Amino acid sequence: MKLLSLTIAFTLTIFINKVQAQEENVVESQGVNIHYTTFGEGSPILIINGGPGFSSEGFIPLAKEIAKQGYQTILYDQRGTGKSSMERMDSSTITMDWMVEDIEAIRKKMKIEEWVVLGHSFGGIMANYYTAQHPSHVKAMISSSSGGIDLALLGNAQSDLYSKLSETELDSMRYWGARRRAGDSTEYANKQFAKYMAPAYVYNRKHIPVVAERLTQGNMTLNRLVWNDLIRIEYDCKPKLRSLNKPVLIIQGKNDIISEDLAFTADSVFSNSKVILLDSCGHYGWLDQPVDYFSNIFRFLEQVEEHSENVKQVKLVLQDYIQSIYISDSSMVETIADSTLQKSGHYYSPRRKTWSYENMDYEELQHTAATYNRKQWLPEWAPAEIEIYEVKEKVASAKVKAIWGFDYILLSKKNDQWIIDKVLWQSYTADEQQEYFRKLKGIWELNNTSQKE
Question: Based on the domain organization, do 283 and 320 belong to the same domain?
Answer without folding.
Answer: no
